[in-house]
Amino acid sequence: xxxxxxxxxxxxxxxxxxxxxxxxxxxxxxxxxxxxxxxxxxxxxxxxxxxxxxxxxxxxxxxxxxxxxxxxxxxxxxxxxxxxxxxxxxxxxxxxxxxxxxxxxxxxxxxxxxxxxxxxxxxxxxxxxxxxxxxxxxxxxxxxxxxxxxxxxxxxxxxxxxxxxxxxxxxxxxxxxxxxxxxxxxxxxxxxxxxxxxxxxxxxxxxxxxxxxxxxxxxxxxxxxxxxxxxxxxxxxxxxxxxxxxxxxxxxxxxxxxxxxxxxxxxxxxxxxxxxxxxxxxxxxxxxxxxxxxxxxxxxxxxxxxxxxxxxxxxxxxxxxxxxxxxxxxxxxxxxxxxxxxxxxxxxxxxxxxxxxxxxxxxxxxxxxxxxxxxxxxxxxxxxxxxxxxxxxxxxxxxxxxxxxxxxxxxxxxxxxxxxxxxxxxxxxxxxxxxxxxxxxxxxxxxxxxxxxxxxxxxxxxxxxxxxxxxxxxxxxxxxxxxxxxxxxxxxxxxxxxxxxxxxxxxxxxxxxxxxxxxxxxxxxxxxxxxxxxxxxxxxxxxxxxxxxxxxxxxxxxxxxxxxxxxxxxxxxxxxxxxxxxxxxxxxxxxxxxxxxxxxxxxxxxxxxxxxxxxxxxxxxxxxxxxxxxxxxxxxxxxxxxxxxxxxxxxxxxxxxxxxxxxxxxxxxxxxxxxxxxxxxxxxxxxxxxxxxxxxxxxxxxxxxxxxxxxxxxxxxxxxxxxxxxxxxxxxxxxxxxxxxxxxxx
Length: 746
Ligand code: BGC
Fold this sequence. Notes:
Elements: H1 3-11, H2 15-21, E1 23-26, E2 59-61, H3 66-79, E3 87-90, H4 103-106, H5 112-127, E4 133-134, H6 158-173, E5 185-191, H7 210-217, H8 219-226, E6 231-234, E7 238-239, E8 242-243, H9 248-258, E9 264-266, H10 274-277, H11 284-293, E10 299-300, H12 304-315, H13 317-336, H14 360-371, E11 375-379, E12 391-394, H15 419-424, E13 435-437, H16 465-477, E14 481-487, H17 506-516, E15 521-527, E16 543-546, H18 554-562, E17 629-631, E18 635-636, E19 640-641, E20 646-655, E21 661-671, E22 682-691, E23 696-704, E24 710-712, E25 716-718, E26 722-729, E27 738-743
Parallel strand pairs: 1-2, 1-10, 2-3, 3-4, 4-5, 5-6, 6-9, 12-13, 12-14, 14-15, 15-16, 19-27
Antiparallel strand pairs: 7-8, 11-16, 17-20, 18-20, 20-23, 21-22, 21-26, 24-25, 26-27
């Protein structure tokens, strides 16, 4: 339809029907059973059945099975008055049926072409299943491992988050503005700074300076918007005292004006209603007014708009205008999806199973991304394993198939490859198949009831803890090498998964300590939704593979890595602290006036702790490989540049080990003096190179004035004349190859 036709259509709607377009409900209102995830308040949501016509609802949330989508749409169109189809939106965050590694793992690959390819697979599977909008990408920067949604985040760095935002949006939507076949609309979230709740506590307030917001937190949302994201979701949290959903500065000045976002702004789950709960509005009427004035187009899962917006709009022409604008944005989205022409977009009513899901190719992409996301944190020359080695796999994750993480709500753990299954697939290649013992449950039985409605889904072995441990010791005693598969429970991370002490469950640590006494090599695999505190166990093991939740192909990816069929190449997108007291800890922290001096590290009056190092356990950008890479000297083609100039930094990287491998070469800059103190280091660029054993390549990085800019609350985005230190290396602590150059502005 043309825009004029949409405007005409809006003209034919009653005020209530207009408001209906802004209402989002779950499938149970339409008698569908597959509402796969409910995260909102546990109460009836209070629609007035006399005034609210269910068949004016604009969109549904988390109905994800093709048959349900088809049947609801059909029933809806038969009863609705204006033939405006329903929009189906869902949380498909890192895979529909083929599940990819969790986002924090994906960004450890630093392979954004591959991430885009994975997002395309996800889009295709959604398209073939009739879904129109996915609530992805989530691009909230996070610096505190206590927060459970680290799992869904791209990590702590604005450049990686920006690349993630772009590649996901392009993969989901395709490159055109009218959403092409095999794609769906993206919804970037949670606007803004939802990843920075105070003390890592879910839904807590966020306090951030304007400087931090602009330099660190906002660029990833903007990147998704620039890549064309059709929707933005507001965040639950307050930002400097104002709830994001009712935040004029954020939604009007930043989102609509500065970022020029033309699309649909949807509230997070019940966030409009929560304006009152926050203590920001007196009542729902005020919340409705506040949200519409902030151009929040869709009210997710509350009755606030339905109960209050019609009267507000009828009484006030300005609000009627805002309502019309919102409805137009929603209808434009439906139009961009081609729903007026084909409300059953992507579906084949004759065969709902038709379409590409979990195909060999899709699994292959998931496998590749998993192999590139697993981080080798430690290796005392024990990996890769030799085929003839007598291995015992011990630990509750050995045969566990729930390795897709909390937010893969459309995935089925039955489809995943467990570690043992992955190892069995290598039998043809002559590996000696491992013995196995579980050793313990993922969580101690005594802690299960903390997990509320999920406690019933947590399996507890009927054997006693002692007998599980005894058996593990027996099995491990007969092996040369122990592969120990431990990890957080799926239910310990994700939304509502904040933890004060994110470490391995204590029964698993007990298992590890008991195995340690056998004096054998232990190779630890850790499954987790966040960086865990590893300080207590890192010294007990000879190698650590940090698997995160690797998705459908988990076991195969890990088996390939264990036996050297794949060489680990991932590097951390988030810092691993030594202890909780260091939080928040991140590599790009501001310079202090009293840094610790290498010559006098114990000096009392320096910025440090008395009882802990300043350094993390593993820094941002860190990750090992089975091979070694040597960096040559950094060369700069010039010493200085002006505003329009560039400087090229070159470095030669050589694979000096005996395996082919991929190295992520990282370029960091430090602005040595600025009108707002800059971080000690900031990632500005990176390249992932493939090098055969013995091969070397010279890499070039072009530095432009734009990369030297920062946001100053007084002047906006600026660069300033002066000296910049440059570091090219293997991680954020690698200061061996340095250079220095000047920006000279007139
Ligand atoms: C989450 C969102 C999600 C929404 C819909 C909320 O609780 O914060 O990320 O998209 O629910 O399920």
